[in-house]
């Protein structure tokens, strides 16, 4: 109950009228049967209020406390700004006049690989808790000659400007570092004559950090003063907000960084798998990997995954980064674990080599516990067309790694009777990856995305390629896993 003296001191800032309004609202909304006395000296009213709060805290009446905090904030909006969190009332000391105090001069948002704040354009402002009545915070800035030059920089990489003006906002709980972009649940942002509606800046499933700071570049005036207003209601947390000029990093620049500095060598990949296997004490079984990205259902070009994930399956760097540039969810599309930092991403050399040694028409391969990679070829007829495609695309692709004769190529008609076929140099049926590995089967045995299954269902991929549809039918006939009666009757 050490909070009580602080509450008592804080309440003294309110006027007698505000305090008695609080008690009236409490009597109406919380305490209709045991009304607190409204009249009396200021000290008496405060003591009454504090002892009532003490009772609620002792009884752990969370919902009532949330309502009470809201009543206090609403009735003394300029003097008091409380917050109820984890069983405690927090006094925020958030007063409009103190907004520019030095303790919030250095805010730092969680690093976003696509957007890097370069220069702050407005004051950093705290947006206090809001009840039923509308709250708003105004921001203004005028671009300097230097800002205009920066914003006019041409982009040589893609068609979007490399510098932008963006509005940053985050929940404020006293700390100013590692802030995750988030806006009050019900809000709108006015930018000069334009309005950014709340639904455009809402986090995904209420998860902070899953929304981008909105781009104000085209709405901003180049020479005149820019006026912004964040309007919101019903916010039980204060927010902190400001405007920056940011530098944008295009997706393929990030891919270049990954390919240059973040390659996890094949040896390390296999070593890690062995460690997982030893720790897990799981029976060794072969695993199926898809050559297609679980996000785009197209063949992976640059195979990446998080270094903290325990699976071999990768996803495509370009697809993953493009999606996260739009909506920064940062979760693994294979095991759905959060990827805490983009720096956790690695290019998997083992997977890259597997891709390089696997014909284009192949959707999946099997990795044996011994490290041997077996190609599962369900459409051998496509092999010829595949070779032609590869010749066409050879010049476009920059291989990540050199082809090494370390993958066994097996033509796989069914599970029990593998026919080993050498495609000629650099493939040799007897070649294996000579590192004994044990792959933990659990991550792959779970029903994962459809692309990870050995026989993917006819998705859009088949629908858009009529020739492929035809050959798939053909492969169904030779698939011994199908029921023969079913085949005959169809
Ligand atoms: Zn994962």
UniProtKB/TrEMBL annotation:
Return the Gene3D superfamilies for the record.
Answer: PINIT domain, Zinc/RING finger domain, C3HC4 (zinc finger)
Instruction: Provide the coiled-coil residue spans.
Output: none
Pathway(s): Protein modification; protein sumoylation
Reading the lineage from the top rank, the first entry is Eukaryota
Q: Which residues form the SP-RING-type domain?
A: 278-360
Matching entries from InterPro entries are given as: PINIT (IPR023321), PINIT_sf (IPR038654), Znf_MIZ (IPR004181), Znf_RING/FYVE/PHD (IPR013083)
Q: Which residue intervals define the domain PINIT in the entry?
A: 95-249
Q: Sorted alphabetically, which Pfam families does this protein's record hold?
A: PINIT, zf-MIZ
Q: Where is the composition biased (Acidic residues)?
A: 387-397
Q: Where is this region: Disordered?
A: 377-400, 440-490
Keyword vocabulary terms for this entry: Metal-binding, Transferase, Ubl conjugation pathway, Zinc, Zinc-finger
Q: Which family does it belong to?
A: Belongs to the PIAS family.
This chain belongs to the protein called: Uncharacterized protein
Native species: Mucor flavus
């Amino acid at each position: 109950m050490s909070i009580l003296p602080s509450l008592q001191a804080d309440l003294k800032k309110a006027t007698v009228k505000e305090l008695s309004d609080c008690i009236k609202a409490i009597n109406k909304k919380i305490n209709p049967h045991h009304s607190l006395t409204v009249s009396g000296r200021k000290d008496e009213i405060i003591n009454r209020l504090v002892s009532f709060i003490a009772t609620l805290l002792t009884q752990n009446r969370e919902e009532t406390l949330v309502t009470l905090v809201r009543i206090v904030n609403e009735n003394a909006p300029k003097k008091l700004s409380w917050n109820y969190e984890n069983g405690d009332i927090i006094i925020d000391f958030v007063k409009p006049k103190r907004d520019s105090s030095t303790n919030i001069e250095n805010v730092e948002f969680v690093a976003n690989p696509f957007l890097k704040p370069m220069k702050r354009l407005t004051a950093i402002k705290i947006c206090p808790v809001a009840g039923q009545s509308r709250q708003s915070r105004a921001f203004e800035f005028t671009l300097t000659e230097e800002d205009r030059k920066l914003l006019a920089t041409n982009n040589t990489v893609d068609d979007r400007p490399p510098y932008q003006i963006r509005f940053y906002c985050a929940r404020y709980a006293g700390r100013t570092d590692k802030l995750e972009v988030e806006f009050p649940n019900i809000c709108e942002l006015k930018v000069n004559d334009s309005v950014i509606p709340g639904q455009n800046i809402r986090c995904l499933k209420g998860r902070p950090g899953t929304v981008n700071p909105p781009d104000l570049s085209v709405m901003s005036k180049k020479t005149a003063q820019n006026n912004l207003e964040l309007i919101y209601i019903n916010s039980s947390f204060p927010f902190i907000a400001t405007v920056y000029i940011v530098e944008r990093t295009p997706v393929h620049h990030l891919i270049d960084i990954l390919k240059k500095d973040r390659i996890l060598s094949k040896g390390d990949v296999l070593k890690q798998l062995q460690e997982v296997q030893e720790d897990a004490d799981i029976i060794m079984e072969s695993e199926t990997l898809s050559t297609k990205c679980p996000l785009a259902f197209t063949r992976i070009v640059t195979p990446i995954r998080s270094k903290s994930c325990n699976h071999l399956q990768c996803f495509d760097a370009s697809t993953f980064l493009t999606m996260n540039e739009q909506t920064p969810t940062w979760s693994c599309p294979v095991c759905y674990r959060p990827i805490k930092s983009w720096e956790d991403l690695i290019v998997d050399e083992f997977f890259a080599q597997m891709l390089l040694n696997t014909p284009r028409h192949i959707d999946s391969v099997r990795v044996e516990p011994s490290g041997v990679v077996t190609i599962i070829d369900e459409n051998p007829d496509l092999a010829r067309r595949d070779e032609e495609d590869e010749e066409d695309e050879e010049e476009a692709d920059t291989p990540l790694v050199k082809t090494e004769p370390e993958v066994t190529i097996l033509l796989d008609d069914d599970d029990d009777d593998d026919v080993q076929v050498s495609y000629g140099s650099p493939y040799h049926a007897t070649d294996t990856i000579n590192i004994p590995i044990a792959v933990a089967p659990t991550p792959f045995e779970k029903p994962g995305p459809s692309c990870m299954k050995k026989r993917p269902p006819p998705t859009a991929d088949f629908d858009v390629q009529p020739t492929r549809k035809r050959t798939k039918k053909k492969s169904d006939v030779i698939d011994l896993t199908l029921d023969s009666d079913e085949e005959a009757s169809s």
